[in-house]
Write a structure and sequence with these properties.
The protein is of the alpha/beta class. Helices cover 41% and strands 12% of the residues. The chain is built from ten helices and eight strands. The protein has an eight-stranded parallel sheet with strand order 2-1-3-8-7-4-5-6, sandwiched between helices. Strand 1, helix 1 and strand 2 form a beta-alpha-beta unit. Helix 1 crosses helix 10, helix 5 packs across helix 6 and helix 8 runs parallel beside helix 9.
Length: 290
């Protein structure tokens, strides 16, 4: 299986910043040390091109990101200070999901050891998301003629508002999101299927809702050739921003449920990491590694 990483493109974040950037490097190091993967399984992706980004994002937004011309309110909403490193890393993260998508179509599955930037809309970023990697990857594969239809399975604890808005009028992409009903973002554009859950939802209730949601997704989505799975670690009980009560075992069962549903339908999948905000970064890595 191919794994694409961008953790060596570091961001100059201020001291005390709440985004745990080190989780990406630690995850790659953990996987490399396990012995299940060879050095040739790990790949640095090329950055997404401007042309690829423009398949989803407006030219005005892309140019203002590139040139550092975002307004202060936009930077606050984004959650990261602007820097040239932010632009490069964001492009690389999108490039990793594009590359994982291409690899998945030939090998069945591939992983971006970052990504899941589902709060980025066509004309703006937000919630630590600059560009929407899942949306750009799907649009790029469609533009290449590799796929016609796709499904996004979003199991991050926060609703994928950017993805829902981007594909809201597009019948070729079915968007599914299972998330905290009262969690960020405040305004949630409708996905094709949203499964909002109350605070403190635990393993069994979550897994039952997910199983029903997956069944409905594939019933309604129709024939499709590709999936993006956003495997957020933030439904975990120890997450600072999650407000859920899932255990690590429950999150493993979640992943197994998603992969079983995809395997049953023979769907290739690009897996991306999504959110994770535990104070102990090793716990985030544990969840993604398993």
């Amino acid at each position: 299986m191919k794994l694409f990483y961008t953790d060596h493109f570091e961001l100059p974040l201020p001291a005390g910043h709440r985004f745990p950037m080190a989780k990406y490097r630690l995850l790659r190091e953990r996987l490399a040390a396990r012995g299940d993967f060879s050095e040739t399984d790990f790949h640095t992706p090329p950055p997404a091109t401007e042309e690829q980004l423009l398949l989803v994002h407006t030219e005005d937004y892309v140019q203002r990101v590139f040139q550092g011309e975002l307004a202060p309110a936009e930077i606050r909403r984004l959650g990261f200070p602007w820097s040239s490193e932010l632009v490069e890393r964001s492009r690389r993260s999108v490039g990793a999901t594009i590359a994982a998508g291409r690899a998945a179509l030939t090998e069945g599955a591939a992983v971006n050891l970052a990504g899941g930037t589902h709060h980025a809309h066509a004309d703006r970023g937000g919630g630590f998301c600059v560009f929407n990697d899942a949306a750009v990857a799907i649009r790029a594969l469609q533009a290449e003629g590799a796929i016609e239809r796709a499904v996004v399975l979003d199991c991050d604890v926060h609703q994928g508002d950017g993805t829902a808005a981007i594909f809201g009028e597009d019948a070729s992409v079915f968007t599914f999101s299972i998330h905290g009903a009262k969690n960020f973002p405040l305004f949630k554009p409708p996905s094709d299927l949203d499964v909002p859950l109350p605070d403190d939802t635990a393993d069994e209730s979550y897994l039952a809702a997910l199983a029903a949601g997956l069944d409905e997704t594939f019933r309604r989505a129709g024939p499709t050739q590709f999936a993006v799975y956003i495997a957020g670690a933030d439904p975990y009980a120890g997450d600072r921003l999650g407000r859920m009560q899932l255990t690590k075992e429950g999150l493993l069962r979640r992943d197994e449920l998603v992969f079983a549903a995809l395997a049953e339908r023979g769907l290739p999948v690009a897996v991306v990491m999504g959110g994770g905000y535990c104070r102990n970064i090793e716990e985030i890595v544990d969840i993604h590694e398993q």
